[in-house]
Each structure stands twice: as C-alpha cells, then as structure tokens.
Design a protein that fits this description.
Bound molecules: beta-D-glucopyranose
Largest sheet: 6 strands, mixed
Strand order of the largest sheet: 11-16-15-14-12-13
Distance between the termini: 74 Å
Radius of gyration: 27 Å
Number of strands: 26
Strand content: 15-25%
Number of helices: 20
Shape: globular
C-alpha cells in the first residue's frame, strides 16, 4: 500500500513539474511519458495496448464480460462500447483508484454520423458536397459524445467504395478520391477541434487502413488485390489527407491486401504510414482483427499473430486478448523487441496526455454536462438541415415535386411511419424510438391529418401481400401518392453485403400495382437505403424519386422540408447508381481501355461493352436535380498553356434560370490525356457549392496549379507530367470535354 502511495505521490510531483512546461510543446508530453514509463512494469505497458469492450453496443462477433477484472489488474488501456458519464466514470474510477499507477482509461465508441443526435449516414452527408456541414455534424457529435465520457471515435471511414453490393459503402464518402480527401479533413477537424485538451474534443480515427472498400465481389471482409497504381492513386490519398489534417489514430482493415492481411501489413503501417507520411499517432486493430490473422492463413497461432501485428506497427489490440496473452512471452523469447511495445505504449499514453486525462481523468464524465448537451435544440436543427441538404432528387418528371400544401397525400410504404431504420446502421447512441421524427410526423408539420391517407402496404422484407388492397384504395382517394420504401437498416453497414441491390421484398410489386391502379396520378418514390440501388424497374413507374438515404433523428422533418420546397434540393450523388448488378464495379472515373465504345455505335463489335446492357449507369456520379434549373455558359481559361509554376484560371458563368432560389454544386473535372500510367477518363479536381436566387448569375472561378495534376506515375513518384489536359466545369460527371490546355 505504501509503495503504491509513493508511486502515486511521485507521479503527482512530476505531474506538477510537467504542467509548468510550455503549453502544446511536443516535448512537454515526452518528458511526462518518460517519467511515467520509468515507473511502469512490462505488464503495465502491455496493458496499455489492450482494448476491451463493454456491452452497451454490440459491434463485433463477441463481447467481453470480464473487463472489470482486467481493468483492476492494470491490463487494459482502453474500453470500447461503454458510454454515459456514469458508466465511464465508474470504470475510470477502477482504473484510477484501484491500479498501481492509476493510469486513466481511454473510452472509444463508433460515433459515426452522430452520437445521440443522429445525422444522415455518411454517404448521404457526402452528397451535400458541403465540407462545413460535415465538419459541423462531427463537431456536434463530438460535443455529445465527449459529454458522455467518450474520448475517441472510430471515424471517419475513408474507404473509397465503388461496389454497392458492399454494405459499408454507406459509411464513407462514396467513390471519388478528391471529395473523400476534402471531407476527410472536415471530419477530423470536426471531431478533434483545434485543441485536444478541451473536454469537448475527441480523437478521430482514420479507418480502415487500407483497401477495405475493394473487397472482391463486394463481400465484406473479402480479399483485396490491387496494383500499386490503384493503391497510391485511389485508396491511400484520403488517409494521407487525414494525416495532413492531424488525425490522431488509425484503424487497421479486416481484408488482406495483395496477400498480406492489413492487420499484419508492415508495408502499409511502418513503411507508408509511419516512415513515408510521418504519422505520429497510434494504430488500433479492427475488432479481433489480430486474431483473424490465423484464419487468413497468415499466422499459425495467437502468439504468431501478436508477433506479426506488433512488427507491422499495430499498437493496440481491439477485443482480441492476443497482445495481453502473448507480448510478454514474445519479448522474453526475443521475437519482439521491448522497444516496439515501449513505442506503442508511449503513443497511447501520449493521446491520454493530450486529452488532459492525467490532469483530470473524469473531465469527460460529467453528468450535468451530459444532460445539458445531448439533443440540444440547435443540434436537432442542424440535423434537420443536414437531412434536407443530403436528400438527392434523382428524378422529377412533370414537376411532381414539390408537393402542394393543399393536396391530399396517400402515404404508403413500410418506412412511412418508421422511426427506427431512419437512423441507419450506425445509429450510435441515438434514441431510435421517441426522439426520431418519422416521415409521417415530418409531413404533419405541413398537412392536416385529414390530408394524409396512410397505408403501410407491406413489410420491408416479408412477402405478405394482404396490405396491398388498402394501399391501392388510399392511392385512389389521394391527389398524389408518396411511397416511402427502401432497405431495412441492417441491410447496409458491416457484414451486410447483398448480391441483389434492388428494393427488397415485395415493395417493387406494390409500386407496380399502385401504378396500374392510378395510371394518371403523380407517384413520388421516397427512398431510404444505404447503398445505390438498382432502380431500373421503378424509374419507369414513378414520376419522382427522392433519395433520402437514412436521414437520421430529424429525417422526417428535413425530408418534409424538401418535399414541400421549403428547402430546394441540392444534394448530388457521390456514388454511381448502376442499371444492374452486372455492371458493378461502375464508377465515373474509370479508365478508357484500348477499345472504348464509339459514341455513335455503343454496341459495336469488339469494343469494350456488354451485349445485354449499356455501359452507362442509371444515375451518374454528381447527378442531382433541383426545383430550379441552372444554365452553365461558356468556359474560359486564362491561358491555353501553363508552366509547372503557373496557375490556370477557369471561369464559367452560371445562371439560375428557373423559379426557385437554390444551391448548385459546380464541379470541375480534368482529364490527363496521356500518362506514363493511364489516367482516368475524367477526375473531379474541385467543386463549389453556390447559392443563386432565381434569375441570378454568378461567375465561378477555379484555380488549377500543378499540384492538381499530380499522380503517382510509373515509378511511383508523385509528379505532374507535361502534356495535354481536357477540362470542364459541369453540373455532374455526365458531359463531354470541349476545352483543352497544355502543361509544358
Ligand atoms: C468495425 C469498425 C468498428 C469496430 C468497433 C468493427 O467491426 O469494422 O469499423 O469501428 O468494429 O466497433
């Protein structure tokens, strides 16, 4: 007991000295960590590399029940899936008061698109093309999470995803590298703020490093194989952007990459992340991913798995027991150098110091702050705005939308009154019942109850048609039919890959029946789903389609704002919608091939086409309608040639030619015509979201420097190559280049 008091006293003494040193100087923590590590046994250092989970949420195959025992032993550094100020305080108390050195725990949780106040899913948010909005949503998420004892979120997910079969496409920013890079920075800034020592900022985590989105056949956890060209030019850049934005932590991916599982992959963690990019934070494995080196066929047993992961640069073992059980033995046997464990421990402690946990381990676990913070009215308002700004108007024939406030609406579909699925798969700690606003409730703000004729019609996935007749009857009585359909929330997210990406169950059949019953009425399809769907059947049957994704806590209100034109839709797709599953992977920035299809004859023999489907998708990347129309006129370039040190200015005039004020997402695309490795047919290189009143015009300007033209060439050097570039400023990726400049 005395020894413990002496250790704690000396720790406090050193702590006082440390506090006197300069604020924010990197060395400040190093000295503190040195002193602390001098007091730590090897077991205690290993303890810092261990993350266990409580049962507040289940995010993996199993949960630990014995975590308290291990915390008491000092062999846990971080906890997963525990939140609320009380629960985190109780566990923190064990770590601080009942262990020899009283090192505080780090509490991590998947705060993915909101904590209590749930925002639209990340794929939806990316469709707002609004970096400030993304930053705001993650700032609010951090405010709420930090008030409930959380120090760390496992977000953002920066996996480029081009396969809608993959359920986790819902968690990222879509298929494009440039947009994901931009949003990576917004997420990191939002979560971490500008000062981690403030108690309302949390550590962000760039995940899943790397290649997870390229799982073969879109099957989760599946093999990934890609050349260095694709790795460096497509999958790595968002992670580099996160490092540049100061992200504090990284998470490994479940997949293997070119034969080496990411979690045991020295090339990506030591060589690229640490040596090339100079990342100073720590790396956590994904959930039991170190154990999974065994079934991958990469490690022969758990000892081997611990060795491989530690050598690869994985600092913390999430849920695996692998480090706790094996690291000491590996060090004793000389298989792993103690320096590596010291390094990992140092980085984890450093994060705890940055968060101020050594000054006050309970600074995030404050019940009063929790009560004052969660579901603040301004957070709910932001969630409503975000839902509106993320809903994509895919089709709007005959101005079926916006709805008239005087109309009688038939509200049909299994998601019309839903308050559960609307939050998406990572609904965080959001209250799925009671707090969430359903579409039905959202419409109630605009309509009298007598104007809303409701029939569920069918379930999301079952095949019981007994509700069809009631749905048809209400459709007949109404002026307009609003179908609220889609996927159940568990059809996207982790371990939720689909081979059939059509609207599930008998919902498509119900749409058909309603169209037959009311051939001349306007039918609006309001979709909630977590991936691009194959809508080839539905597109011909309905007048309008509004893709609301899973819009979150205030989804019903935000979507109703769009339906009634209070918010003029402005979101645009960040992922391509295929015509059929056979076209996958399909994305706008593909390569040309040696036999591209001629425009005049897309079916021509011996060309790169399908015999049973066009090459073009149903909806292109960047597509999204508005209630108004925008006209792009003229594109002028400041010069037809630029040198390597010059800047090219491209200008276009945009006019709101319709009858609503509205936002337009203006997109800049470039095509590097010839490269030492082939370049995509077009690449997004900039965007601006502008607001134009009706009849208003604006000149939009983009400056292009050589930095925008760089890529990893055939020697894997990051350079721009001299030559010709095509350029366009367009409302979506569906355009033909007409302008050219050269880099000389
Ligand atoms: C997921 C991660 C998540 C982790 C912790 C894993 O199964 O792949 O994205 O952060 O669980 O919940």
């Amino acid at each position: 007991m005395r020894a413990r008091h002496f250790l704690i006293a000396s720790f406090i003494f050193f702590g006082c000295l440390w506090t006197l040193s300069a604020q924010n100087a990197p060395s400040k923590y190093e000295a503190k960590i040195d002193s602390l590590m001098n007091l730590m046994t090897l077991e205690e250092k290993i303890g810092q590399t261990v993350m266990y989970g409580g049962g507040w949420a289940k995010t993996g195959p199993f949960v630990n029940t014995d975590y308290e025992k291990y915390i008491r032993e000092g062999s846990v550094g971080a906890m997963l899936n525990v939140y609320t100020s009380k629960a985190t305080r109780d566990l923190q108390k064990i770590a601080v008061e009942n262990t020899r050195l009283g090192i505080p725990l780090l509490f991590g949780y998947d705060v993915i698109h909101g904590h209590r106040t749930i925002f639209p899913i990340n794929l939806a948010l990316s469709g707002s093309w609004d970096p400030e909005l993304v930053e705001l949503t993650s700032r609010i998420a951090a405010e709420e999470a930090s008030a409930e004892g959380l120090h760390w979120t496992f977000a953002p997910m920066l996996d480029i995803a081009r396969d809608p079969r993959w359920g986790r496409i819902s968690e990222g920013a879509g298929e494009d590298v440039y947009l994901t890079n931009v949003l990576a920075k917004s997420y990191v800034k939002g979560f971490q703020g500008d000062d981690l020592s403030k108690n309302n900022t949390i550590l962000a985590c760039a995940k899943h490093f790397v290649g997870y989105g390229a799982a073969q056949a879109g099957r989760d956890y599946h093999t990934v194989s890609m050349g260095e060209d694709e790795l460096r030019n497509v999958y790595l850049p968002p992670f580099k952007a996160a490092v540049d934005a100061g992200v504090e932590t990284f998470m490994t991916a479940f997949n293997e990459l070119n034969g080496v599982p990411a979690t045991g992959n020295k090339l990506i963690f030591r060589d690229i992340l640490r040596n090339e990019w100079d990342f100073k934070g720590f790396v956590v494995s994904d959930y039991t991913a170190i154990n999974e080196l065994i079934p991958h066929g990469f490690a022969k047993d758990s000892l081997d798995a611990a060795r491989l992961a530690m050598l690869a640069g994985v600092d913390m073992d999430m849920m695996g027991h692998v480090y706790r059980k094996n690291l000491k033995k590996l060090i004793e046997e000389g298989e792993v150098s103690e320096d590596l464990v010291n390094e990992s421990c140092r980085k984890i402690l450093s994060a705890k110091f940055k968060l101020g946990l050594f000054e006050d381990p309970y600074r995030y676990s404050d019940e009063k702050r929790q009560q004052e913070t969660i579901y603040k009215p301004q957070f709910l308002k932001a969630a409503r705005d975000a839902a509106a700004a993320s809903s994509v108007l895919l089709k709007n024939d005959g101005n079926a939308l916006p709805l008239e406030k005087s109309a009688t609406i038939a509200l049909i579909g299994p998601l019309a009154k839903d308050e559960y699925h609307i939050n998406g798969n990572w609904g965080g700690a959001g209250d799925r019942k009671g707090k969430s606003v359903s579409i039905y409730e959202g419409l109630q703000e605009y309509l009298e109850d007598s104007q809303m004729l409701y029939a569920k019609g069918c379930e999301l996935e079952k095949d019981d048609e007994s509700g069809f007749q009631e749905a048809i009857d209400v459709a007949k009585k109404a002026d307009v039919v609003l179908l609220v359909m889609g996927e159940s929330y568990h059809m996207s997210g982790e371990a939720a890959s689909r081979t059939d990406i059509r609207i599930p169950g008998i919902q498509p059949k119900l749409i058909k029946k309603i169209r037959e019953a009311v051939p001349n009425k306007k039918i609006v399809l309001l979709l909630m789903n977590g991936r691009p769907l194959d809508l080839s059947e539905e597109i011909g049957q309905v007048d309008a389609i509004l893709e609301a994704w899973y819009p979150g806590t205030m989804g019903g209100s935000g979507v109703a704002d769009v339906l009634f034109g209070v918010y003029n839709p402005s979101a645009k797709l960040t992922v391509t919608f295929p015509r059929n599953v056979g076209q996958i992977p399909i994305y706008y920035n593909m390569k040309n091939t040696g036999r591209p299809i001629p425009e005049s004859n897309p079916k021509q023999d011996y060309k790169s086409n399908y015999i049973d489907s066009p090459n073009t998708p149903l909806f292109v990347f960047g597509h999204g309608l508005s209630y108004t129309t925008f006209q792009y006129s003229g594109l002028t370039l400041s010069s037809a040639h630029i040198g390597f040190n010059d800047t090219l200015t491209a200008r276009v005039s945009i006019t709101n030619t319709g009858n609503y004020d509205g936002h337009e997402v203006v997109q800049l695309y470039i095509h590097d015509k010839v490269g030492s490795i082939t370049r995509p047919v077009k690449e997004l290189k900039g965007f601006q979201k502008i607001f134009l009143k009706k009849r208003e015009s604006k000149i939009v300007t983009f400056n292009i420097s050589v930095e925008d033209l760089k890529f990893y060439n055939n020697n894997m050097e990051y350079v721009a190559e001299a030559g010709e570039f095509e350029i366009a400023i367009a409302p979506s990726s569906d355009f033909k280049f007409k302008h050219l400049f050269t880099l000389e």
